[in-house]
Design goal:
By secondary structure, this protein is an alpha+beta fold. It contains two helices and eight strands. The longest helix is centred in the C-terminal third of the chain and has 31 residues.
Length: 161
């Protein structure tokens, strides 16, 4: 059966819980798992117990929250990288950290599709880090915050360019 194939092939590990290998199959290539109180999980592990029979496919991991109309990409594994640990950011996500439950979705997808999703995720991370670092520089360069000794962000020996 599809359920037993997925159960043998993929595992999810949430810190403090036993290994999860039983997915509710909603399509032949897609299974879901309910996560209770997601705000307590900063990371999770995803791994293959057995290789994926089709070497051109990988397993994408998503999460979804009510009303369950969209999937948020977390990451992917494949025969070439059969396990990984992913940071969820659920404790600081204002949409997720107030929810009682969310759904994890595992889905078989072509490796080419997963590669593009991973690249897009990396670009998003880079932009977020750049904005976080660059915002302080922008404030300093444009004098938005009055620079005075004793101001917590002021340091006369720091160069921001």
């Amino acid at each position: 059966s599809t359920q037993s194939t997925w159960g043998k092939m993929i595992g999810v590990l949430l810190p403090g819980l036993k290994l999860q290998c039983e997915f509710e199959m909603i399509k032949p290539d897609q299974g879901i798992l309910t996560v209770i109180d997601p705000k307590q999980y900063t990371s999770l592990g995803l791994f293959l117990n057995t290789p994926i029979p089709d070497p051109l496919l990988g397993v994408a991991l998503y999460y979804s929250y009510p009303p369950y109309t969209a999937l948020e990409f977390i990451g992917a594994i494949s025969n070439q990288r059969p396990s990984d640990i992913f940071y969820t950011h659920w404790p600081i996500n204002p949409i997720v950290n107030v929810l009682h439950e969310i759904k994890l979705v595992v889905q078989l997808e072509p490796l080419t599709t997963l590669a593009e999703k991973n690249r897009a995720k990396q670009r998003h991370r880079f932009k977020a880090r750049f904005c976080k670092r660059g915002g302080h520089q922008f404030v300093q360069l444009h004098g938005i915050i009055q620079q005075q000794p004793g101001n917590s962000i002021y340091n006369s020996s720091t160069k921001y360019i």
